[in-house]
Amino acid sequence: MAATLMQTANATNFIILLTAILVFVPSSEASFWRSPQKTINVRNWDKTQISIRCFSFNDERKVVHLKPQEAFSFTFRQSMIFPSSTMWNCSTTQGTIIAFKNDYDCNKNRNNLCTWRFSVKEAYRYSPEYKKWIRYEYNPDYESLSRGGVVKGQLPMV
């Protein structure tokens, strides 16, 4: 009887400890459950002001109006369960660029930084692997054309 009671107490203590670990560890800032922060740096590489809005499937930033050579950065965490599901887009009045996805080499560098230069006609992402700027053409899509540019939900003037 005493042995059964001791086994029940040990099982109860184990369940309480496991519950505490599962509840408190993932929410701590230094948790091994969380991926490191990634940073996207965006610079206006044009001679005119550019308006940019960056967004993902579950988060978005406000429209930023960048003067020539002006820049901004933002950080986020990549999904630990499905890393390839984390994707960030940046939209201008010319179209949209995929600013972050899992297979970009900037995702695998030490400082977790993806650096972009935007101009009116195209955008460039710095490749740490090749140590050069890679050119990207804008993809005109619903974000830039039928929804009125970088302002979410704004219909085009007719």
UniProtKB/TrEMBL annotation:
GO BP terms in the entry: rejection of self pollen
GO cellular component, one term: extracellular region
Family the UniProt entry places it in: Belongs to the plant self-incompatibility (S1) protein family.
Pfam families: Self-incomp_S1 (PF05938)
Signal sequence region: 1-30
Subcellular location per the Swiss-Prot or TrEMBL entry: Secreted
UniProt keyword annotations, A-Z: Secreted, Self-incompatibility, Signal
This protein's name: S-protein homolog
Organism, scientific name: Rhododendron williamsianum
